[in-house]
Amino acid sequence: MIDIVLVPTSHVARESLKSVKNAIEKEKPECVAVELDINRYYAMKEESKAKGSTLDAMRNLGFLTFILYWVLKSLQSWIGKKMGILPGSEMVEAVDVARKAGIKVALIDRDIRITVTRMNQIPWTEKAKLLLFLLKGMIIDYPLMKLGRGGQKIDLNKVPPKEIINEAMRTMKKEFPHLYRVLVTERDKFMSARLKDMSKKFKKIVVVIGAGHLDGITKMLK
Fold first, then answer.
1. How many CB atoms within 10 Å of residue 46?
2. For the whole model, what pTM was predicted?
């Protein structure tokens, strides 16, 4: 029988570091799969440098897509600095813990370059709407530390409750459907396909993924 254990995380929560380590030590899987591709992993480990100038990136992506991508990364990095943690540290932690224990590691996410290129196909109206949404979040919403209908305060050191994650994903899907497809649905399908292939080789896999991918991957695996 195949046992796939999904460990949902927040990329800027210190709690995620402990959750990942505890899950691997408790489950003792044959393989640990993480929501990273090889390029993102090496970039986070600072073992490679980004190639090409900012001008080249703008030329390849288009001005609005480049600005949108830059704001998305800047927002995540900004929150990470506030929390005192490098965004995505739990993914690197999963790799390090697994390797120290002699457990095989699989990087299961789609190549980040493909995802960024796919963002280029999002309608410019949605990109502009998202850009305004993100700027509002940085200037107004983040200082209030609020999310959800009830204005519930969020402790960013912890993974948000499932109902808040689900509400955020529903909002994203409704307000930014093309972005949701590129960043969530397409990657859910890609990672699920990888896991299905891996299940032919490994009987027990611990999978470390962002909480926003939990429901989609769970449904696809079932």
1. 7
2. 0.83
Pairing of strands 204-210, 104-107: unpaired
Q: What distance in Å separates the CA atoms of residue 150 and residue 146, rounded to the nearest whole number? A: 9
Q: Which segments within the chain are labelled E, that is strand? A: 3-9, 31-34, 104-107, 146-147, 152-153, 204-210
Q: Give the number of domains in the chain.
A: 1
Tokens describing residue 10: 């927040």
The boundaries of the domain holding residue 78 are 3-221
> How far is it, in rounded angstroms, from Cα 169 to Cα 95?
27
pLDDT tens profile 76-125: 666 656 656 667 889 999 999 999 999 999 999 999 889 988 988 899 99
C-alpha dihedral sign at 11, 12, 13, 16: positive
Nearest to 27 by CA among 5, 49, 2: 5
DSSP 68-132: HHHHHHHHHHHHHHHHTS-TTHHHHHHHHHHHHTT-EEEE-SPPHHHHHHHHTTS-HHHHHHHHH
More confident residue, 7 or 55: 7
Please provide the average confidence, as pLDDT, over all residues in the chain: 82
pLDDT at residue 202 above 90? yes
User: What tens digit of pLDDT does each residue of 45-66 get?
Assistant: 775 444 444 455 556 667 777 7
